[in-house]
Amino acid sequence: MEPLILIVEDEPKLAEVLIQYLQKNNYRTHWIDEGLSAVDWVKENQPDLVLLDLMLPGKDGMEICREIRQFSQLPVLMTTAKVEEIDRLLGLELGADDYICKPYSPREVIARVKAVLRRVHMSPEPEHQLQLDPHRFQVSWQGESLILTTVEFHLIEKLAKEPGRIFSRQQLMDSIYNDHRVVSDRTIDSHIKKLRRKLDAITAGKELIRSVYGAGYKIEYPE
């Protein structure tokens, strides 16, 4: 059966466009135009993903996301016209899987929906590799877990997607700071140092993140 997408959006024209694009891409849809009934609908119908606007009548998207995370880890893709960094970080820390700023292309939304669902339904990593939980910013290694900061999690997520690949400091900066702020190489080195120290506590000192002189960093798993 096609995945069911709940659209929580108070702009009818925008919701209609999203419904058309999603249905053309073989998704089932349900639309709610206010915030008060969204959580109850999720509990009763268990959609595969929630496309959630931030500014809603009755109850805002932040509160809805917070309530959903109390009982479910289903993917939540937040959309908003507010572009302040604090809102981006707050939305992700509440457990949103991705964030899109308005105005956006419906095609971009479809691409993000597909990417999030693909990520959620990926087969688990082998036991000798890191397990990443983007809902909790948590990493696990052979049964041991720890919680990371937002920046630390996005950093290790980037490295872990392609074990053995060397990422330059600039590539890592671009992946964790998407607002094009000016950040020095020392900032990445500081994050890596803190991340290594935390990982040591669950990997018995195994050095997973390797520095490559003059090039950057990579993740390598022990044989």
UniProtKB/TrEMBL annotation:
Keywords of the record: Cytoplasm, DNA-binding, Phosphoprotein, Transcription, Transcription regulation, Two-component regulatory system
GO CC, one annotated term: cytosol
Stored Pfam families: Response_reg, Trans_reg_C
UniProt-annotated location(s): Cytoplasm
Superkingdom of this protein's organism: Bacteria
Protein's UniProt keywords contain Transcription regulation: yes
InterPro entries: CheY-like_superfamily, OmpR/PhoB-type_DNA-bd, Sig_transdc_resp-reg_C-effctor, Sig_transdc_resp-reg_receiver, WalR-like, WH-like_DNA-bd_sf
DNA-binding region location: 121-221
Gene Ontology molecular-function annotations: phosphorelay response regulator activity; transcription cis-regulatory region binding
GO biological process per UniProt: positive regulation of DNA-templated transcription
4-aspartylphosphate: modified positions: 53
Transferase recorded as keyword: no
Domain OmpR/PhoB-type: from-to ranges: 121-221
Domain Response regulatory, chain residue ranges per copy: 4-117
Protein's recorded name: Two-component system response regulator BaeR
Protein's organism: Pelagibaculum spongiae
UniProt lineage: Bacteria, Pseudomonadati, Pseudomonadota, Gammaproteobacteria, Oceanospirillales
